[in-house]
């Protein structure tokens, strides 16, 4: 509904001179003139409600995640694989991350690379807790520590999990400093580094997976031809 239609309706209301004996005609013309106005008002109200609803609704995939008030309990039973790459999180326990958002929606990833993807997708949901595997632990399955207590050793000369540049976390600052990394940083700086490497790493991963799929397709075709 254009604004000139609304203006025309209001002009009719203002210019029309009503007679004392012409009540039916007055009611009819008044209703006709007001119809466009009411239509616009209804449309504006509906759009405002829709906009308010869209802003109030959290955006991102957290609505599909498991609501978990205690995600570290039986962690690998509930989050066995990474949500984004499918890697076995127990196998990669030294680089895994576990993210609990403010509504207790929880997601497990294999690395800070995939954790960065989760955090970028869920812009309207703040993380309440983030844990990471302690790469410096002697345990076979590395224990989780809070990322605010972690010291990330960044080493671009060595490959990491889902990354060409290693970003391992340590509970012990001395251990982090002893591994020969280029620098040791807190979580926020490590996350920034993960985002900085994202394009390069994504291209690398896509290339590797395409090569793997091509190899598997070739192998399956050879087996099929042999069977025939």
Automatic annotation (TrEMBL):
InterPro entries assigned to the protein according to its UniProt record, in alphabetical order: N2O_reductase_NosL
SUPFAM superfamilies: NosL/MerB-like
Region (Disordered): 51-70
Name the UniProt record assigns to this protein: Twin-arginine translocation pathway signal protein
Organism annotation: Cohaesibacter celericrescens
Lineage: Bacteria, Pseudomonadati, Pseudomonadota, Alphaproteobacteria, Hyphomicrobiales
